[in-house]
Amino acid sequence: MTVETPVRFSPLDGWQNTFERLPEGLDIREIPFLTQLSLRVEPGSPAARAVEDTLGIALPGPSCADMSGEVKALWLGPDEWLLVAPPDRSQDLAGRLRAAIGDAFATVTDVSAQRTTLSLTGQLTREVLARGCAIDLDPRVTPVGSCVTTLLAQAGVSLVVRGVGASSVWLLVRSSFASYVATWLVDACTEYRGGS
């Protein structure tokens, strides 16, 4: 008996052609199927130190993200982080973290199917996001490495600033809202298309 591997579909499968027709100054692409693990642990605890030793990074503080390594750590709350890694790493990464934590009080949960990631780059990024997001993306307020959970056009997102002046950001959006957010972003670019 042959067992077929299930086919995975991104929530934004088929959107890349639409994203390619956006005005100059904004590039959007989906980064599908990233490994995403929810980490709940008391900051500074032995379990947190074990996680940090395993990842080779310090868990970031409030409203910050560490995007330097292969495994990115995004602060989501006082004792909660989202660990983001390349696709198909969830079992290995979760296993290593759980082994490091041992019997200490902490949880590692695979939430990879919960969200997809949109990468936005270009000089229009900040201006377009400002049309539907209350977060001030001025670099003095949200410098590179900022990570905030907010609303974009009434959809919950985690926004990570990756470039100076929010010229490059990641939007992590729940899969069920991904098409809505993509539609909103395309619509928010209408006035920048000129005559096209």
Automatic annotation (TrEMBL):
Gene3D superfamilies: Heterotetrameric sarcosine oxidase, Probable tRNA modification gtpase trme, domain 1
Protein name: Sarcosine oxidase subunit gamma
Native species: Streptomyces coffeae
